[in-house]
Amino acid sequence: MNGLPRADLPGFQSDQPERLILASGSPRRAQLLTAAGYEFTIQPASDGAECGICSRETAPEMVARLAYRKAADVIARVEDGLVLAADTVASCVGQILGKPSDRDHAEEMLRLLSGRDHDVYTGVCLWSRRHECFVADVVRTRLRMSVLTEEQLTEHLDSLRWDGKAGAFGYQDGNDWLEVVGDDSESNVVGLPMERLAELLENFEQNAEKIETPTIDSIESTDSSCS
After folding, report:
1. Which of 23, 31, 124, 227 fits a disulfide with 85 by CB distance 3.0 to 4.6 angstroms?
2. Which of 107, 118, 135, 126 is nearest to 189 (CA)?
3. DSSP helix/strand/coil, 175
4. Quick one: pLDDT at residue 98?
5. Residue 46 pLDDT exceeds 50
């Protein structure tokens, strides 16, 4: 695959008056939204909104929690807007694979994934500051990685294309050793399930849960049990 998924990306067709705020500094998520015709501003969540894996937490639980925390972090800092937050990880043979810390960590992840099917999960949270309500969901994509040769592994590691990407790879980078299984979402692997996002936005008022908008102090004091 070459570049980000662009064909048939669903856009948001609604009279939603609130401005959309992307709570992420990911250029890939911004490019997906732009390709689908969304108008938005960017206000990344603080580093403190991510605290790692909690005890006995599954991959879907983790991305749901982190997407919620990122949205809560930004919603507490704005006076108006519809905040969109997301978090993506890979999961293989029971191991959660986030962003690698260095080259050795990236190589460890890729050797684990080589020749295996695995899952990519993205948690998505939309939070309305004006109406003090939110909606959240998790989308899974099944991904297949071919057996990597030593040459392919070395080339990928040397390229630094693994840096900042869950599982140490980017589906959008055109790697011919990656393929989506079945009809699962390609954009979900990149970091934002555009099909599900359009549905969440379209049905936001019907599905959103009312909640008191948190303060920054209340966000920073939660999840103290995470490791």
Report:
1. 23
2. 118
3. coil
4. 86
5. yes
Q: How far apart are CA 73 and CA 178, in angstroms?
A: 34
Ordered structural domains, the chain, with CATH: 20-220 (3.90.950.10)
Annotated active-site residue 163? The verdict is no
State the pTM of this model: 0.83
Q: Which residues, 6 or more positions from 174, have their beta carbon under 8 angstroms from its beta carbon?
A: 1, 2, 3
Q: Are 82 and 128 in contact (CB under 8 A)?
A: yes
User: Would you say 33 and 187 are in contact if contact means Cβ atoms under 8 Å apart?
Assistant: no
Pairing state between β 95-97 and 20-22 = unpaired
What is the Cβ-side half-sphere exposure of residue 7, based on CA atoms within 13 angstroms? Answer: 4
Which one has a higher pLDDT value, 166 or 71? 71
pLDDT digit string, tens, across residues 142-200: 999 999 999 999 999 999 999 988 899 988 887 889 999 999 999 999 999 999 999 99
Helix axes 150-159, 103-113, angle to 10 degrees: 140
DSSP string of 192-203, one letter each residue: --HHHHHHHHHT
Extract long-range pairs of 95-104: CB within 8 Å, 24+ residues apart. Answer: 96/53, 96/59, 96/62, 97/166, 97/167, 97/168, 98/166, 99/164, 99/165, 99/166, 100/162, 100/163, 100/165, 100/168, 103/157, 103/162
Dmax of the chain from CA atoms? 53
